[in-house]
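Dear colleague,

As promised, here are the two records you asked about, laid out in our usual form so they can be pasted straight into your sheet.

NAME FIELD: protein one
SEQUENCE, THEN STRUCTURE:
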Amino acid sequence: MSTVRWWTPTDLFQVTRNMDRLFDQFLGYGGTSAPAAENGGGLPTYTLPVDILETPDAYVLTAPVAGFAPDQVEVTYEDGVLTIAAQAQPLEVQGTWLRQERPFGSWYRRLQLPQQVQAGKIGAAFDNGLLTVTVPKEQRPEPVKIKIGGGQKQPALKS
């Protein structure tokens, strides 16, 4: 007889962290998550989780950046790609860590957005550790009904 063990989100997070550590051990910190220039001198790089909501007027992206000051988070948009980057430095403490679970290092995410956005009107807000980026959509032209006239002949096409 076997027993069933239910997994919780905490268990899944722990498995993900262990896999990250395994890859970091054999491939070096950062892997391919961010360009080498973005990876602040050997600090680990993590993928920043992002929620994306589409409204009739905009795309709204939210990302948890708890523990960061607004000046530590950078949001850029270039060639249809929105990039969110943040970097946390390890805490300098006197003593020996008994347990350290909060990750430090670079958090990085690149997202390809549709081309029909108003790049000049992209806005970002920072509230209680949650970054919200609003990407307004271009207004689509309304369909135009073409009136069909009667009694006119089409000109003959010549070959």
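NAME FIELD: protein two
SEQUENCE, THEN STRUCTURE:
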Amino acid sequence: MNMQCRHIMPNGLKCRAVALRGQPRCYFHDRLHGFASRPTPAPGEPVKLPILEDRSSIQIALAQILDGLGSAQLDPRRAGLFLYALQIATQNVDRKHDIVPRESVHFVTRTAAGDELGPETGFCDIPDDCDACDERHTCEDSESEDGDDEDAVDEGYDEDQD
């Protein structure tokens, strides 16, 4: 059984994403709490923002910029440039997906360099792999020909009978 993230959002709702295996929070909130618990860098030390590849990373970057501004680590001019960059990044990301996805990784592994990797997962070239696949009868993406086709036309029906 998978557990739900136990993070409580500012609006009072509990996050409903899947928690990392053996952890109380999902991947996003685990990283967010990890960021919040880090000591404040010394003045003049560079601010390291995440790669702005999705709405979640933009939220984390925004929190870091506001924290840097509030702790006087960032001067207002530099913070303004960062916020402008976030505004541009926001226009470029896909807004169809939730900031905290309901389906996220359940566990991560780390490389020797400390980078996080999700679980290794294979995928099929649909429909090319379907005929040889052992999972074709239970796969919702399979285009196997041995099932009933719901879109099949009933050839015994005559529209002129109405």
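A couple of things worth noting about protein two: The longest strand covers residues 109-110. Helices lie at 27-37, 55-70, 76-92.

Best,
R.
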